[in-house]
Specification:
This protein has 451 residues and is mainly alpha-helical. A hairpin with a 2-residue loop joins strand 1 and strand 2. It is globular and about 80 Å long.
Length: 451
Amino acid sequence: MKYRNKRAKTKTPVDKLLIEPIQRFISNSTMSGVVLFSSALLAIILSNSPWADEFHHFWEYELSIGFGDHLISNDLHHWINDGLMAVFFFVVGLELKREIIAGELRDPKNALMPILAAVGGMVIPAIIYLFFNSSGAASNGWGIPMATDIAFALGVLYLLGDKVPLSLKIFLTALAIVDDIGAVLVIAFFYTSNIDFLSLAVGGAVFVVLVLSNLLGVRNTVYYGVMGIGGLWLAFLMSGVHATIAAVIAAMTIPANVRISEKEYISGLKVLFNKFKNQEGIEGPIVSKTQLYILEDIRSYSKKALTPLQRLEHRMHPLVAFVIMPIFALSNAGVTFSNDFLEQIVNPIFLGVFFGLLLGKVLGVFGLMSVLLKFKLVKMPKGMNNLHLLGAGFLAAIGFTMSLFISELAFESKENIEFAKMGVLFASVIASFAGYFLIKLANKKGEAASV
């Protein structure tokens, strides 16, 4: 035992100066929103700087993937939107499956209020957009104000600290998740180009293989990654159905079961721990061979007690939050403010997106819920009041990532895309501040009422 004490870990300068600060940064709930906002702000600054042309041309760099005559060529901007964002949608799919199996969407009764709020927050924004853009190419953007950016919305909520009611966090999370489902379905059915049914059939066959693999007990995440990317994603990319949909479908096939129960895990771990403790140690930091085997058994045992779905979601979340989404924001949020700025903000596309998000989401979430609450068709979650609900409506109006993504799918004209992006950015900034201050005021009123 004396040797074991000598092996106690001492923190190195790398731990103190690099690893631990990075871990604290990543684990901070608000940091992903800060990084995302900073990337969008940088894109806007560069788009209106002397280096604007170089910045925009950089995303037009052509990149080919494949071999011989079998190449897929696209510019960097498209690879980010079709490739990197597929990883984002994969994690969204993992979150959706987790919530449906064991989260807020498991019990339809508890999920009724956020589901109805999400539906209202999708339908009314689309109607408001079509009010401003009822015909022509502009009408194709009706899906843009339907989306809520879950990372940004929850990031603003977490800035308010522990005083925010848990019920509000649950309500907004469930609302945003249902909203994500709606956005994925909208992309799949309404923003898909001409379909190659042979490629789609190949994708369907790969999906069946993945489902059978799950049922047969295959739990290797690398296997699902290779099949999901090399088979399903590539087939969907070639089929004309947007490739990000393949990522959501692939995520649904990831196993969400464990090989050993929690009770078996605890008892087995105790046995392994006692074995390790009773082994004679070696002086210094090196463990004995027997101890090494026991540690390997502990790691393997722990792996069996965790679902592949949760392992993947946990590992991939930092990659998505701190790499993929910031890159997406940097490549998509750059809007150029011209000398005719006033003409830009009275354009019907800008107005449709801006009021669709800012007014439509609030009416859809707060307005619809207020009516349902008045007629006692739903119950206000414990700890929440009307101001909390109004604040949630504004936070739901933060479209950003999803709305910017759909803007690229909805329009071919770069000018129309610019109008839509401006509407998204303006509405999201105003909604962030409005939601923050309303919920802060609601918290103070709640504290005063409890005194």
